[in-house]
Each structure stands twice: as C-alpha cells, then as structure tokens.
Amino acid sequence: MLPAVGSMCRTGRLGWTMTMINFDQLCKSYGGRRVVDELTLSVSAGTVTGFLGPNGAGKSTALRILLGMSAPDAGTATVADRRYQSLGSPGLLVGALLDADAFHPGRTGRESLRLSCLTMGLPMRRVDEVLDLVGLTRAESRRRVRSYSLGMRQRLGLANALLGDPAVLILDEPANGLDPQGQRWLGELLRERAGQGCTVLLSSHQLAEVERIADRLAIIADGRLVAHGRPAELRASHGDITDFYFAVTSGLDRAA
C-alpha cells in the first residue's frame, strides 16, 4: 500500500522566495570532451523543475558539481547563493538522491538511516517518520539492502534525502524501478513539497510524468541548455514537447 503524501516542510520555510539553485556558465570536460558546456540555469523556491536530457547529456555531471562531488572547470553551481561545500549543515538544507546503490549492501535499511541521523545530529524518530513517508514497512527496513529491489532502494534513498526535512531536493532518476502507481505517488509527494515552499530539481527520463508535475522544464543536450520554461510556454513556442525533445536531442544519447 502506498503512503499518503504528508506535510514535511517546516513552516519557516514558506518564506523562501529567492533563487535556491543556480548554475552560472558551468563547464566541465572529461577526456577532452566538454560534458557540461556553459550551463546557466536558475531554480526558484517552491517549484519543481524537470531537468531533462538523454544519457550523456551532462545532467548527472552538473548535479554532482552542484553537490560538491566534482569540481567544475569554469563557472559556478550554488545552493542559496553558496557552494555546497561551504554549507554548515548541508543535509538540513539539501536532500539528494543520485545513486540508489550508494548504501552499504550489508547494512539494513534502518541501520543506513540511523547512521545518517547520527551524522546530521537528527533525532532517531526521523527514521520511522521517513520510512512511513516513502512506504517502506518496518519489516522491510530490517532487511539487508543487498536484498532490496531497485524500487525499494530508490525509496530508501528518498527517505535518506528527506531525513533533514530539507528546503531543497536534488534527485537523479528517482522513479527508476518504481511501478506506475509508485511514479504517480512520487509525483504527488514532490508537488506537495513544492507547494510548501521546497525547491525540487528532478533529473529524469520520464518525460510525460515530469511534464505533468513540473512547474518548469529545462532540456539539456550535449552539455548545453537548449530550452527552459513553463510547459505551456514551451508548447506555445515549439509545439508538442515530446516531439520537440526528440528533435533537439536526436542522436545525442550515449551510454550513461
């Protein structure tokens, strides 16, 4: 049974009106190939922004730079006008899910979340709260992560991202492994959080689902931002968004 979408943002967060995520002329190359090419994009508080593009387009690289996991060659990537590395307690401002396989396979899901609570100085009651939110049962949380399906690992990763009740969520393909009902639940959860002032940057291949829930879409191809705007604006300028997406990204899909 899927969990109900509940209120998780603290009331003080409703005051956020600033640009919470900002990429400014961001560049990164690997092996002589420009993976991110002068990416400039702003994401405001209280919105869901779909970050769309084929494999190899530069989405994951940009998110890794934003989260301080890789250094840019040029340009900046900031959260609340600061680099991630300079945030005093980053987990309390930014929740991230980049890799569903990041958890130690020999630990239980509950142990993984408890370790994160210890790291961030959070009360252990948060473990049960986020498990309930993402729909992992107590019995499932006591299983070793190595036994989890991809969908269960994605839910665990989302639970981990939500532990600090963050103002910003940065998610890379969070719907992978979820069935259609789970994808719909995830979309409702993200819309609920955005409605409470949280900022969501969502990288995904699920074009139709992202178009349905996103306030804005940003399409990246070959490291460059090729379109950005509200879905209605993009449809007015380019017609069907799916057709436009495939037209501007045709032939650019590479192995992830």
TrEMBL record:
Belongs to the ABC transporter superfamily. One of its GO terms (molecular function) is ATP hydrolysis activity. The keyword Transmembrane does not apply. Residues 21-247 form the ABC transporter domain. It comes from the Bacteria. The keyword Aminoacyl-tRNA synthetase does not apply. It comes from Microlunatus soli. Keywords: ATP-binding, Nucleotide-binding, Transport. InterPro entries: AAA+_ATPase, ABC_transporter-like_ATP-bd, ABC_transporter-like_CS, P-loop_NTPase. This is ABC-2 type transport system ATP-binding protein.
